[in-house]
TrEMBL record:
Protein name: ABC transporter ATP-binding protein
Mitochondrion listed as a keyword: no
Similarity section: Belongs to the ABC transporter superfamily. Drug exporter-1 (DrugE1) (TC 3.A.1.105) family.
Signal peptide: none
GO BP annotations, alphabetical order: daunorubicin transport; doxorubicin transport
Superkingdom of source: Archaea
Any GO molecular function: ATP binding
Coiled coil regions in record: none
All copies of domain ABC transporter, residue ranges: 7-238
One Pfam family matching this protein: ABC_tran
Amino acid sequence: MSETNAIDAQHVELTYADGTEAITDLTLTIPNGELFGFLGANGAGKTTTIKVLTTLLEPTGGTVTVNGYDVENESRAVRESIGYMAQETSVDPELTARENIQFACEIYGVSADDRATRIDDLLDLVDLADVADKSAKGFSGGMKKRLDAATALVHEPPIVFLDEPTTGLDPKARNRLWDYFERINERGTTIFLTTQYLEEADQLCDRIGVLRSGEIVASGSPTELKDRVGGAVLDIEIADPEETLERARRVTTEADVFDGAPIETTEAGLSIRSTAARQQGTELLVALMDAGITVTGFNVRDPTLDDVFLAITDGKDEGTDVTDAGATAAMEVTR
Ligand SMILES: Nc1ncnc2c1ncn2[C@@H]1O[C@H](COP(=O)(O)OP(=O)(O)OP(=O)(O)O)[C@@H](O)[C@H]1O
């Protein structure tokens, strides 16, 4: 077993039989105990990556070890040492919560002596103890997801893969799952999570990797990534935007107080991301007012992960420090 890394992937490639290059050059190191978030637009290669890491697909290039085992030559050992919660739940609705976990214990070969305690412990952990003997048929989507996550943990794997675990859940159910993921992470379990909710990654993850076209293009803690997109975001709302927006944009370009930062138009006005947004924002306000444009809203805020994601997936961040070298540097900072 590797002493330091739960996952070590070096220059991984996965080309499907039809020639689709889903992963082109993926290098990723995840230390034990980390809660890692994997983000990417549809088709970026997230599910393909999870399938490689969980031995469901053999990489066509590069090397991967999970818990110190090679995914190609020691696939059985990898499988025995991981938990995997797929996008579709594997809960059997005809069984009770307890029976579902019991069944998972049998599949994973949990010894009969350990089973009863393990099942009670997991039911407690995911707050299903009071419905343990009820059939899963009547469970809400959130309860089924929690039960599914519990079944992925019966053999106490040091790492668990969660593929979009909260998609389709309401905010309350999502929050409960977040609590639960934090709890299992606090027990020392490494978590590899894919999600399409940036807020989820922001709240939960120690570190995030952003995937684009089968390569990691940015990596770091949520704060580092937000800092990296540069400064702050200035949102300006103007009266009568349909009539005035183009002129406001022209005035902003001519005022040139943000060193050529891109100006985005929104429904209500303009949005500018710049390191100078806090200091120079009022200068722009004056320029707009001098031009006879009525400003109805003016707000400087920190970038969100949405801004990060937008910058990266638009390719605007290319050529700065979001290359592999930048990503590695950021990883070192967070350890
Ligand atoms: N079995 C397959 N054969 C050929 N191409 C595939 C196969 N599965 C996925 N792909 C392609 O590989 C690329 C990556 O797909 P993948 O499903 O890994 O992306 P993803 O990031 O998980 O997307 P999503 O968020 O939509 O699930 C896409 O271009 C997809 O069309």
